[in-house]
User: Fold this.
Amino acid sequence: MDIEPDLRDDRGCVRMFDNRDLMDRYSSIILENNAKVTGYLQTSLIEKYSDEIGNLAQIIPLEFGVHSHTHERSTKHFAKEVNNSLNAYRDYLEVEPLGYRAPNGLIDRDGICTLMEYQFKYDASIFPSIRLDEYGYSNLHLPNQPFRFVHNGNEIIELPVTCLPTIRLVMSMSYIKLLGLDAYKTLMRLFPLPDVVIFDSHPYDYYVNRIAGNIHGWKRYAHLRNADQAFELFQSVISILRNQGYEFWYMSELYEHVIRGLSNLTEISVEKLN
Assistant:
């Protein structure tokens, strides 16, 4: 989960933190299914929601990564965002973060090199798919499973968000709501999920109908598709994964598994990024 403010909310609100019913519904699904959550934290939220963030970590199995400081999408400010978010994370949690996820998956070769310089152990920014809106990218040439970015003798593990193989359709709450779970079930029979599934979501994915007034144009329609069934869809996705034999891990556990058990991990030069 990318823990960031609700879409287009100028006040920086996270309604899941402001509304007990939303938090309770989400938490109950996690607890009832013995799931685990890695929350990539936009660290500017700590000032407003430090108690709520801490309380959530007491309620559900939750570890934290970093999701920038202000959700700045321009890559020219990437190094500053990493520095500020790292300092805020350390001050709040008093530990070093292992992983980073860039806003909207927007990361370039300089960004990966910056994470190497700051000694992050893994990155989780890559969506090995194609995106056609104003935040567009094409990562179809990158692996759909964990791999290693290398540069000048340095390296960082990449844990990309999972896509259905071949067609590279992203596994995320936003896409599942848009296309419907029946479509995903059909496609998963044709394009079975890989061994590692990293499923992406945001707090607002579960209640976007409550903030619809913030969203305009075609994206409003896209986000509102099946919005009233979001929690039920989330439960169904977890059930599908459990029934297929998947175990629920923190991203830190996946990272440890990758570095210990996959000696033949694919290596990709950062020069493959724009």
